[in-house]
Amino acid sequence: MRAATYHDGNGAHSAGATGAEATALSDLISTSPAVRQSIRILVADDERILRDSCASVLNADGYHVTTTGRGREALDLLQTRVFDIVLLDLYMSDVPGMELLRTALGTHPDTIAIVITGKPSVESSLEVLRAGATDYLPKPFTGTQLQIMVGRAAHAVIVARETRAQESSRPAGGNSDKVLLLGTAPPFRAAIEQARKVAPTNASVFITGESGAGKELIAQFIHAHSHRNARPLIAVNCAALPEPLLESEMFGHVKGAFTGAIRDKAGLLEMANGGTLFLDELIEMATPIQAKLLRVIQDGVVRRVGSENTDAVINTRFIAATNRDPDEAVRSGALRKDLFYRLRVVPIHVPPLRERPDDIPLLAAYFLEHSWRAHRGGKETLPTLTKAAMWALRAYPWPGNVRELQNVIEHAAVLLEPGANVSPEDLPFIADAGAEPEPNAAADNALADGGYYTARERLLSKFERRFLTRVVIRAGGNLSKAARLAHIDRTSFYRLMERHGLQRDSLANTPDE
């Protein structure tokens, strides 16, 4: 393929790959000439040399390319014709680039938009990515970068076409399995709604929340409702593997790269090509690997450990998650700022279970039925959660969140008799949890964390919460009875519950004696 150059005031720049480099790219972007010819591309930029150079490179690669240097003409084209890929300048003279972007994505929702600009900034890149652009290409750029980025977009177009073809040929009622997200609490429904909106796009998602709150379920939900759901969702726990092993697992390796590398091996990034890569506990990833991952996200090119060549061009969606504060991780240097901005196009926070107590009965009933069928086959009568057990579950703070609730219910389901009434005593993990520390341990903590008064306040708070939890459980959720058992007037009892986050409004729904 012949090379081309363009000038943008900063000198001449190559706009096409040459020689072996071009051959390697053609091999990696495995689309036939007929398929490329079916991919329609619009290049909208008011710099004629740049526009013509881009068209020359893309035409040489076999794509069907249309160009325009006027924003109004670009608007007309977008409103009257369908384009698979749109490359548009963010700063055109007669029409704002954001208006062109919204038109491209609004008129034809399957269109993939790539924004190019000579005035790159973190703010503008975040703005266009949040608006729905797939990628952001700052000037000056090389022909190789253009080919890689368009190649990734073309691959996404092909995947979407294949997925639609599979769905249209699937028999009625043969829908793919959907991820079950149970809960009616407003903060949890808000997280689901964000996931539902972002799922059909290619935007990167950054999920925060405590361990066990359901971050991976949200990632599965996004993938299941995306056009990538015919391809794999690959999950990697960044905290579970040491740095050398994680690097090899992520990027793959070539034979002889290190002791034990007896053959070439593809990494998880290549395995997730066309699908989604879920990076759980991202902040635990070593910073050198973060830098290497950032390069893959920006260029879509994977180089295996020990390789001096480009081994794969990928088109992968990234979803990251952490149970830590990402802003604090950026400030401390544990998380690269540029990687954070790349991945946090759409942030989603999953609330802890203690902030959604009204969802606990729904979740508990589901886990009980699911565990009972898994361990008993569903042939015997399902046990019933008593009102006292429900109050015990609601009053417990659930430090392990939904995952801990599932384990507690499964423990009970394994040991219960058919048709039994589940009481608080059948939930021993709750009854035994939260024991106070030994006095010596408390003294050691006091010395480490601020002395006598700090330790006293901490231990008093733990005692109050534990006492209130137990007395509400003993009263079966009846607040008047609980206040009498505690020898506290009801108003003071309410205030104590509010102070410790025990959800006065939800508990007050229980009728008095």
Model description:
This protein is an alpha/beta fold and 513 residues long. The protein folds into four domains: 5-168, Rossmann fold; 186-351, P-loop containing nucleotide triphosphate hydrolases (Rossmann fold, 3-Layer(aba) Sandwich), CATH 3.40.50.300; 354-432, Helicase, Ruva Protein, domain 3; 439-507, Orthogonal Bundle (Arc Repressor Mutant, subunit A). Helices cover 49% and strands 12% of the residues. It has 23 helices and 16 strands. The chain has helices at 19-28, 33-37, 48-60, 71-80, 97-107, 122-131, 143-169, 186-198, 215-224, 243-251, 268-271, 287-299, 326-332, 337-343, 360-376, 387-395, 401-415, 428-432, 439-449, 452-474, 479-486, 490-499, 504-507; strands at residues 5-7, 12-14, 40-44, 64-68, 85-89, 112-117, 135-138, 205-208, 233-237, 276-280, 301-302, 312-313, 317-322, 346-349, 384-385, 421-422. The strands form five sheets. A five-stranded parallel β-sheet has the order 4-3-5-6-7, with helices on both faces. Strand 6, helix 6 and strand 7 (135-138) form a beta-alpha-beta unit. Helix 20 crosses helix 21. The protein is elongated, with a radius of gyration of 28 Å. Mean pLDDT is 79; it is low at 1-30, 168-177, 432-439 and 504-513.
